[in-house]
Amino acid sequence: MQGIIFDFNGTMFFDGAKHDLAWRQYLEKKIGREISRKEFMEYAYGRTSAAILTHFLGQELTEEERLSAAAEKEKFYRRLCLEDREALHLTSGLPVYLDSLKQAGLPVAIATAANRDNMEFYFQVFQLEKWFSWDNIVLDDGMLKGKPEPDVYIKAARLLHLPPEMCHVYEDSLSGVLAAKRAGAGKITAVYGDSNYEMLRAQGLADCYIENFVKSTMEMEVQS
Protein backbone atom coordinates (compact mmCIF):
# COMPACT_ATOMS: atom_id res chain seq x y z
CA MET A 1 0.00 0.00 0.00
CA GLN A 2 1.22 3.49 -0.84
CA GLY A 3 -0.94 5.53 1.55
CA ILE A 4 -2.43 5.06 5.01
CA ILE A 5 -5.80 6.44 6.09
CA PHE A 6 -6.90 6.37 9.71
CA ASP A 7 -10.28 6.75 11.27
CA PHE A 8 -9.78 8.65 14.52
CA ASN A 9 -12.23 7.91 17.32
CA GLY A 10 -11.96 4.31 18.49
CA THR A 11 -8.99 3.76 16.17
CA MET A 12 -6.32 6.33 17.02
CA PHE A 13 -7.85 7.23 20.38
CA PHE A 14 -9.86 4.80 22.49
CA ASP A 15 -12.61 7.16 23.62
CA GLY A 16 -15.68 5.07 22.95
CA ALA A 17 -16.86 5.06 26.56
CA LYS A 18 -16.72 8.84 26.73
CA HIS A 19 -18.59 9.30 23.45
CA ASP A 20 -21.11 6.71 24.58
CA LEU A 21 -21.69 8.52 27.84
CA ALA A 22 -21.94 11.95 26.23
CA TRP A 23 -24.30 10.79 23.46
CA ARG A 24 -26.38 8.53 25.66
CA GLN A 25 -26.99 11.15 28.31
CA TYR A 26 -27.92 13.71 25.68
CA LEU A 27 -30.08 11.42 23.52
CA GLU A 28 -31.85 9.47 26.26
CA LYS A 29 -32.85 12.75 27.89
CA LYS A 30 -34.23 13.92 24.55
CA ILE A 31 -36.13 10.76 23.58
CA GLY A 32 -37.10 9.52 27.01
CA ARG A 33 -35.95 5.90 26.63
CA GLU A 34 -32.86 3.75 27.01
CA ILE A 35 -30.80 2.93 23.92
CA SER A 36 -29.51 -0.63 23.48
CA ARG A 37 -25.83 -1.27 22.75
CA LYS A 38 -26.76 -2.93 19.45
CA GLU A 39 -28.76 0.07 18.26
CA PHE A 40 -26.09 2.46 19.45
CA MET A 41 -23.30 0.61 17.63
CA GLU A 42 -25.31 0.42 14.41
CA TYR A 43 -26.60 3.98 14.30
CA ALA A 44 -24.02 6.00 16.23
CA TYR A 45 -20.53 4.48 15.82
CA GLY A 46 -18.63 6.12 12.96
CA ARG A 47 -21.57 8.27 11.84
CA THR A 48 -21.91 12.02 11.62
CA SER A 49 -23.79 13.98 14.24
CA ALA A 50 -26.49 14.73 11.66
CA ALA A 51 -27.08 11.03 10.99
CA ILE A 52 -27.09 10.18 14.71
CA LEU A 53 -29.53 12.93 15.60
CA THR A 54 -31.84 12.15 12.69
CA HIS A 55 -32.12 8.49 13.62
CA PHE A 56 -32.60 8.85 17.35
CA LEU A 57 -34.76 11.97 17.31
CA GLY A 58 -36.81 10.63 14.40
CA GLN A 59 -36.80 13.88 12.46
CA GLU A 60 -34.63 16.04 10.27
CA LEU A 61 -33.10 18.99 12.11
CA THR A 62 -32.34 22.37 10.70
CA GLU A 63 -28.64 23.10 10.34
CA GLU A 64 -28.86 25.50 13.29
CA GLU A 65 -30.53 22.86 15.47
CA ARG A 66 -27.99 20.21 14.47
CA LEU A 67 -25.02 22.42 15.22
CA SER A 68 -26.44 23.44 18.58
CA ALA A 69 -27.17 19.83 19.61
CA ALA A 70 -23.78 18.55 18.45
CA ALA A 71 -21.92 21.38 20.17
CA GLU A 72 -23.71 20.67 23.46
CA LYS A 73 -22.74 17.01 23.33
CA GLU A 74 -19.12 17.61 22.23
CA LYS A 75 -18.37 20.13 24.97
CA PHE A 76 -19.38 17.53 27.52
CA TYR A 77 -17.29 14.91 25.72
CA ARG A 78 -14.14 17.06 25.73
CA ARG A 79 -14.61 17.76 29.42
CA LEU A 80 -14.83 14.02 30.10
CA CYS A 81 -11.57 13.50 28.18
CA LEU A 82 -9.71 16.17 30.15
CA GLU A 83 -10.99 14.79 33.45
CA ASP A 84 -9.47 11.38 32.65
CA ARG A 85 -5.83 12.29 32.02
CA GLU A 86 -4.66 8.71 32.45
CA ALA A 87 -6.64 7.63 29.38
CA LEU A 88 -5.84 10.75 27.34
CA HIS A 89 -3.28 9.21 24.98
CA LEU A 90 -3.11 7.74 21.49
CA THR A 91 -3.72 4.02 21.02
CA SER A 92 -0.88 1.82 22.27
CA GLY A 93 1.86 1.49 19.69
CA LEU A 94 0.44 4.18 17.40
CA PRO A 95 3.05 6.93 17.98
CA VAL A 96 5.84 4.48 17.11
CA TYR A 97 3.97 3.32 14.02
CA LEU A 98 3.35 6.90 12.90
CA ASP A 99 7.03 7.70 13.38
CA SER A 100 7.88 4.69 11.20
CA LEU A 101 5.48 5.78 8.48
CA LYS A 102 6.94 9.28 8.51
CA GLN A 103 10.49 7.93 8.32
CA ALA A 104 9.48 5.69 5.41
CA GLY A 105 7.90 8.63 3.60
CA LEU A 106 4.43 7.04 3.39
CA PRO A 107 1.64 9.64 3.19
CA VAL A 108 -1.04 9.56 5.88
CA ALA A 109 -4.52 11.01 6.26
CA ILE A 110 -7.39 11.00 8.74
CA ALA A 111 -11.00 10.38 7.68
CA THR A 112 -13.28 10.96 10.64
CA ALA A 113 -16.80 11.79 11.72
CA ALA A 114 -15.35 14.20 14.29
CA ASN A 115 -16.09 17.90 13.86
CA ARG A 116 -13.59 20.75 13.56
CA ASP A 117 -13.65 21.65 17.26
CA ASN A 118 -12.82 18.10 18.28
CA MET A 119 -10.05 17.75 15.70
CA GLU A 120 -8.48 20.99 16.94
CA PHE A 121 -8.68 19.53 20.45
CA TYR A 122 -6.95 16.33 19.27
CA PHE A 123 -4.23 18.23 17.43
CA GLN A 124 -3.53 20.17 20.61
CA VAL A 125 -3.53 17.38 23.20
CA PHE A 126 -1.90 14.68 21.01
CA GLN A 127 0.42 16.97 19.01
CA LEU A 128 -0.82 15.44 15.77
CA GLU A 129 1.05 18.03 13.70
CA LYS A 130 4.13 15.81 14.14
CA TRP A 131 2.58 13.37 11.67
CA PHE A 132 -0.45 14.95 9.98
CA SER A 133 -1.13 18.03 7.91
CA TRP A 134 -4.50 19.76 8.15
CA ASP A 135 -4.56 19.48 4.35
CA ASN A 136 -4.96 15.70 4.74
CA ILE A 137 -7.80 15.70 7.27
CA VAL A 138 -11.36 14.82 6.25
CA LEU A 139 -13.88 15.61 8.98
CA ASP A 140 -17.56 16.31 9.55
CA ASP A 141 -18.04 19.72 7.97
CA GLY A 142 -21.62 19.07 6.91
CA MET A 143 -20.62 18.82 3.24
CA LEU A 144 -20.00 15.07 2.83
CA LYS A 145 -22.22 12.08 3.44
CA GLY A 146 -21.10 10.26 6.55
CA LYS A 147 -20.06 6.64 6.94
CA PRO A 148 -21.15 4.02 5.83
CA GLU A 149 -21.21 6.05 2.59
CA PRO A 150 -17.74 5.96 1.00
CA ASP A 151 -17.35 9.71 0.48
CA VAL A 152 -14.90 10.44 3.32
CA TYR A 153 -12.48 7.70 2.24
CA ILE A 154 -12.69 8.63 -1.41
CA LYS A 155 -11.85 12.21 -0.48
CA ALA A 156 -9.03 11.17 1.85
CA ALA A 157 -7.43 9.08 -0.91
CA ARG A 158 -7.77 12.01 -3.29
CA LEU A 159 -5.99 14.27 -0.80
CA LEU A 160 -3.12 11.78 -0.78
CA HIS A 161 -3.15 11.84 -4.61
CA LEU A 162 -3.78 8.11 -4.66
CA PRO A 163 -6.59 5.83 -5.86
CA PRO A 164 -8.44 4.18 -2.95
CA GLU A 165 -7.15 0.75 -3.99
CA MET A 166 -3.63 1.92 -3.10
CA CYS A 167 -4.65 2.91 0.42
CA HIS A 168 -4.68 0.95 3.67
CA VAL A 169 -7.55 1.98 5.97
CA TYR A 170 -7.65 1.50 9.74
CA GLU A 171 -11.18 1.49 11.20
CA ASP A 172 -13.01 0.39 14.34
CA SER A 173 -16.71 0.73 13.47
CA LEU A 174 -19.05 -1.38 11.38
CA SER A 175 -20.16 1.66 9.40
CA GLY A 176 -16.56 2.77 8.90
CA VAL A 177 -15.38 -0.61 7.63
CA LEU A 178 -18.33 -0.66 5.23
CA ALA A 179 -17.47 2.86 4.04
CA ALA A 180 -13.87 1.84 3.36
CA LYS A 181 -15.04 -1.26 1.49
CA ARG A 182 -17.46 0.77 -0.63
CA ALA A 183 -14.68 3.26 -1.38
CA GLY A 184 -12.56 0.42 -2.78
CA ALA A 185 -9.77 0.57 -0.20
CA GLY A 186 -6.94 -1.81 -1.05
CA LYS A 187 -6.65 -3.09 2.51
CA ILE A 188 -8.85 -2.67 5.59
CA THR A 189 -7.66 -3.37 9.11
CA ALA A 190 -10.29 -3.43 11.85
CA VAL A 191 -9.06 -2.13 15.20
CA TYR A 192 -11.16 -3.80 17.89
CA GLY A 193 -9.50 -2.68 21.13
CA ASP A 194 -12.21 -0.12 21.81
CA SER A 195 -14.92 -1.78 19.73
CA ASN A 196 -16.52 -5.23 19.43
CA TYR A 197 -14.37 -7.95 17.90
CA GLU A 198 -17.21 -10.42 17.43
CA MET A 199 -19.40 -7.94 15.54
CA LEU A 200 -16.53 -6.75 13.35
CA ARG A 201 -15.49 -10.33 12.60
CA ALA A 202 -19.08 -11.33 11.83
CA GLN A 203 -19.35 -8.45 9.36
CA GLY A 204 -16.54 -10.13 7.43
CA LEU A 205 -15.38 -7.11 5.43
CA ALA A 206 -11.97 -6.36 6.99
CA ASP A 207 -8.79 -8.04 5.78
CA CYS A 208 -7.30 -8.35 9.25
CA TYR A 209 -8.04 -7.50 12.87
CA ILE A 210 -5.79 -5.95 15.52
CA GLU A 211 -6.35 -4.93 19.13
CA ASN A 212 -3.92 -2.00 18.96
CA PHE A 213 -0.83 -0.94 17.05
CA VAL A 214 1.67 -2.89 19.14
CA LYS A 215 2.16 -5.44 16.38
CA SER A 216 5.21 -6.62 14.43
CA THR A 217 3.00 -6.57 11.33
CA MET A 218 2.89 -2.80 11.54
CA GLU A 219 6.67 -2.67 11.08
CA MET A 220 6.48 -5.18 8.25
CA GLU A 221 4.24 -2.87 6.23
CA VAL A 222 6.68 0.01 6.56
CA GLN A 223 9.52 -2.21 5.38
CA SER A 224 7.61 -3.65 2.41
Summarize the structure.
This protein is α/β, with parallel strands linked by helices and 224 residues long. Helices cover 49% and strands 10% of the residues.
Description:
This protein is an alpha/beta fold and about 220 residues long. The chain has 2 domains: about 5-15 and about 90-224, HAD superfamily/HAD-like (Rossmann fold), CATH 3.40.50.1000; about 15-85, Orthogonal Bundle (DNA polymerase, domain 1). It is about 50% helix and about 10% strand. It is built from 10 helices and 6 strands, in the order βαααααβαβαβαβαβα. The protein has helices spanning about 15-30, 35-45, 50-55, 65-85, 95-105, 115-125, 150-160, 175-185, 195-205, 215-224, and strands at about 5, 110, 135-140, 165-170, 185-190, 210. Strands 3-2-1-4-5-6 form a 6-stranded parallel β-sheet, with helices on one face. Helix 1 crosses helix 4 (about 65-85) and helix 5 (about 95-105) packs parallel to helix 10. The longest helix is centred in the first third of the chain and has 21 residues, at about 65-85. The radius of gyration is 17 Å and the shape is globular.
Index terms:
224 residues; six-stranded parallel beta sheet; 10% strand; 2 domains; 10 helices; DNA polymerase, domain 1
Detail the poorly predicted runs.
none
Overall residue-averaged pLDDT value? 91
Order of helices and strands: EHHHHHEHEHEHEHEH
The portion of residues assigned to helices is 40-55%
What's the shape? globular
Structure classification? alpha/beta
**How many strands appear in the DSSP assignment?**
6
- Give me the number of helical elements: 10
Gyration radius (Cα, Å) is 17 Å
CATH topology of the largest domain, by name, is Rossmann fold
Report how far the terminal alpha carbons are from each other: 9 Å
Strand-residue proportion: 5-15%
In total, how many domains does the architecture comprise?
Answer: 2
CATH architecture of the largest domain: 3-Layer(aba) Sandwich
Largest sheet: 6 strands, parallel
CATH fourth-tier homologous superfamily of the largest domain: HAD superfamily/HAD-like
By CATH reckoning, the class of the largest domain would read Alpha Beta
